[in-house]
Write the structure tokens for this entry.
Amino acid sequence: MERTVIERGAIRKDPGGRLGVALVYPNTWRVGMANLGLHAVYRLANAEADILCERVFLPEDPGAEPRSVESGRSLRDFDVVAFTLSFEDDYVNVLDLLRRAGIPLRTVDRDDRFPLVVGGGIAVQINPEPLAPFFDLFLVGEAEELLPPFFRVMRGPEVRAGRAAALRALCQLPGGYVPSLYDVAYGDTRDPAAGWVTRFEPRDGASPLVKRLYVPDLRQVATSRVVESPGAQFGDLHLTEVARGCLWGCRFCAAGFVQRPYREVDLEVLRGEARKGMAMGLRVGLVGPDTSDHTGLDPLTCTIAAEGGTFSPSSLRVDALTPELSARMAAGGERSVTLAPEAGTDRMRKVVNKDFPDDRIVQAARDALDQGMRNVKMYFMCGLPTETDEDVDGMASLALRIRDEVMHPRARETGRMGRITLSVNPFIPKPWTPFQWAPMHDPDCLAGKRRLLEKRLRPHGVEVEFLSPREAWVQALLSRGDRRVGDLLERAVLEFGKSVRRAVAGWPHDPEFFVSREIPVGDQLPWDFIDHGIDKSFLWREYRRGVSGRITPKCNLTSCRACGLDCADHPELRLPGTVTP
């Protein structure tokens, strides 16, 4: 069956006289339709009577031209080609989609015959520079704040005056970043003492800092799946966003910093969204950086259960998984509990700013299995700053402890032995985190850590899923890359079948400059021009606290002014039940 036949909720309009926006997710339809950011932009754009917004995905046929789901139009037939960017792995797909559509890859090679190429999404908020040569405009921040002024300019006389005039007008928008209006220079990658960014100068009215825009009050903002797609990833779930930002400040997590401040959707709004999903016979997927922070999680999940529905949270902290919540999840059909200790020892968890002991992790697994779940999956990171082989071995020890103390006794009672799985990802230093200055361990070192885990766990039937260290190396190169990495991406797409790793050979720069060195604190970083409201000195202090194993308490929105956002001065951020000091 064609995927468009089984979709529910797709929006189709007559294109006549409307501004045409191709909303592109640079991966397959199945993957892209699980992205709530795409759904949000699709809904917001199509709410405008004079905007036609259609979705485009990476065709599964490697030779096929990308065309819109709704009408089959080519990318070249739209006025705007708008990419939503979430993952570095998809960067090569961006260039591949433009190439297949017959659109010049570099903005300098496009004229008024071609659509405006625009990018947004979490990856843009972190570091857009590897893609800067290929985008006419980036919109930095959240769609609800960015799209209305963007559309106002696109309707205005500057656009009719041509591409150059349009870009000069768009660079004036808060959150608007036009890379071609900045003169940029870098030090030599083979001489780190030369510094990193040596010149970053705006022209033609562009701002030296680009302010990230965010919705200041999220309480009445409902962001859910607009088009239900049973064949897509998580297609059995009606996904709805419960919050943005995070209170905890895990030092490796970019979303925990670039999505600050923490804001949550009102409980009654979420109840309404949950009922929409249940009315369609779907489970309710609760989405957020840490859904367990939501002050209404218990009453929300109780409502869903009481009204005959089921739910699945995208993420829960180990110390928030109560027996009661586990019982509601198990009653709704959850057979596996997912825990994210991130590190294998108490010491290492303090480095990343997670403050719970091994006993609490074991107890969370016990609570889940006591309520009827069978399997345990745990997420870890490997190669974190200050990590030792003892810390790596701690992951195995923790898994075996859960197996011996929790799963074996349960198996004797039920006659069924569940599975325990470790999903281990190499640490990748991300911009806008306290660990942005830290080096990444080299692939051979990470492969040795993988062998250590497998040797310890495989004889006991514990599965280990380990992201390829070489794939992680490429992610790190793209994550901390500058515009020179754009040359590498182009080379990968045009000459090496989208393989960045193969394209490195012959690239005139040292990739380890971006990946495996500890960056001097005095260097100007490629992403420093983005204004998140967070003090760089705060991130540096957190880095030093991390390598010293010191915990920083979670954000207190009623009193905190630590990071630069001064949440205490914004009453709209106060959570239900909090008392103003």
